[in-house]
Amino acid sequence: MTTYRVCCFLRRFRPASNEPSEAIGDVFQAYAGADGALGEEALRRFLREVQGEAGDDDVEAAAREVMAFAAEHRLLKKGGGGLTVEGFHRWLCSDANAALHPRRGVHDDMGLPLSHYFIYTGHNSYLTGNQLSSGCSEVPIAKALRDGVRVIELDLWPNAAKDDVEVLHGRTWTSPVDLMKCLEAIKEHAFISSPYPVILTLEDHLTPHLQAKVAKMIKETFGDLLYLSESEAMPVFPSPEDLRGKIIISTKLPKEYLETKSSKEEAQNGSTEEESVWGDEIPDNKAQVATACQVSEKDSERYVEEDEEMEKKVQLGVNAEYKTLISISLTRRKHDMDQDLKVDPEKVSRMSLGEAAYEKATITHGSEIIKFTQRNLLRIFPKTTRITSSNYNPLMGWSYGAQMVAANMQGHGRKLWLTKGMFRANGGCGYVKKPDFLMNTDKMFDPRSKLPVKTRLKVTVYMGDGWRFDFRKTHFDKCSPPDFYARVGIAGVVADTMMKETKVIMDNWIPTWDHEFEFPLAVPELALLRVEVHESDNHQKDDFAGQTCLPVWELRSGIRSVRLYARDGEVLRSVKLLMRFEFS
């Protein structure tokens, strides 16, 4: 019995049991023989009929893996029999039976131009916390690269003496980090998780003298890893395969930063509220900045003086050596969408848009954005009012073909979970090939239109386990075992987006829901499966108990094991759900 103390009394509850749920038991019995075990032939039939394995070779290989797992963990019936119900359940819950194939690896065609891929993109990659007063460090850069991020952003500013370069979020109270530390971190961690190219975007506020210094640092640090374009104007981008193991520099000239209205200022206006289907954002456990602070009048005057001084220096010209490092040029915006989104048949480039400006453009120039991103790169970044490093819905960018939907990796919450979910696809290499309809030049895709249902995804949530190992007995409730429920839904185009939930299972560390949901999908190629578990609390806000997000187009059919992650995206060591996925 499990006991909880309430004042002077002890409350007793049944001990947690990890036996298979009734529904899983029924599946086993449907295939087990008279001896109560699952023989090899019955296992093959199960793999074919329930797990969706197609082809004799695939079925045979899967059966060998299951039997090897069972033999290794001593889960076979004595006397050379088949798989016991315990062994069957243990295998179903193992990582070998994960919802995404654990050994599939990179499988998209990586030989197409960069513009054909969604690219895992970070924003202000050097920040350790909020956008206003946190520290800057090379540590979050290294972590992002290890997690598979392929686009790193650095903001370059002169130091107080104007004789060296610092990395910091300009015109805030963030503390700087040395540029060399950032470059060394990029070199050391760039290709640990993925062999495909790292794009280094520089927001450059430097004079020609400091540009020359940066050029020397970049060349000496990266050496042969640095990709240098053979011509100033590329007619088409090279492919991720062509750029394997390379670091690419992308920026625009500092004079353009001064002449152009700050794109970050453009993003000041708020965007529309998300649909209620998303649910309230889960609060951070750490203290957050409560209100947006404004720069004092004295500081504002100082910044104006700095801009005037820098503009005079920039008139001297741009350092030639620095300019040769820029392989992907950032186009200067004309603040006229008709002009900004014109496609140049002779050369390709990159453009950046603030979240709010981009959202407006999708309403008036949706098809033009898709056409632009078929050849060129488009980067979307969060508005500056997101001072707590929150994020926006990335599907707003992906639905129109934007490759670089920049995310604050130091922030947490549902929108970042979607980004992490997208880039679990294609072996987690940081590049995911865009759906063919986003590259179709004959008929432009419209994610806002009423689209016919293409497929239906049936999801069954059987049970969950692992919280009893990863959390204290009183973590969720001081007086009893937790009351868990699951939320399951789809994030995608508007027509597909929805969220549903199971009933609450009271006082049980190993909840069994056996709950079935069905989701009609118009665009499964852009659909992400959202899964969250919460602990119901009648007296205060429900406790968070884990989450994951998975690309629907890569889900394996059948009964699968699904690992959950903490709010900050780190994997929970023991917590898993057992779920079933069926497409019709």
Describe the structure.
By secondary structure, the protein is α/β, with parallel strands linked by helices. The protein has three domains: 1-97, Recoverin, domain 1; 114-253 and 320-438, TIM Barrel; 449-583, Immunoglobulin-like, CATH 2.60.40.150. It contains 16 helices and 21 strands. It has helices at 22-31, 40-49, 56-72, 85-92, 139-146, 179-189, 208-222, 254-259, 263-266, 297-314, 320-325, 337-340, 355-373, 395-398, 414-422, 467-470, and strands spanning 2-6, 9-13, 117-119, 151-158, 165-167, 177-178, 198-204, 247-251, 326-329, 350-354, 377-381, 404-405, 431-433, 455-465, 484-491, 498-501, 512-521, 528-535, 543-551, 558-565, 571-583. The strands form six sheets. It has a six-stranded mixed beta sheet with strand order 6-5-4-7-8-9. A four-stranded antiparallel beta sheet has the order 17-14-21-20. Helix 14 links the parallel strand 11 and strand 12. Helix 6 packs parallel to helix 7 (208-222). The radius of gyration is 26 Å and the shape is globular. Residues 256-276 and 282-316 have low confidence and may be disordered. Keywords: Cell membrane, Hydrolase, Lipid degradation, Lipid metabolism, Membrane, Transducer. Residues 438-566 form the C2 domain. This is Phosphoinositide phospholipase C. Its EC number is 3.1.4.11.
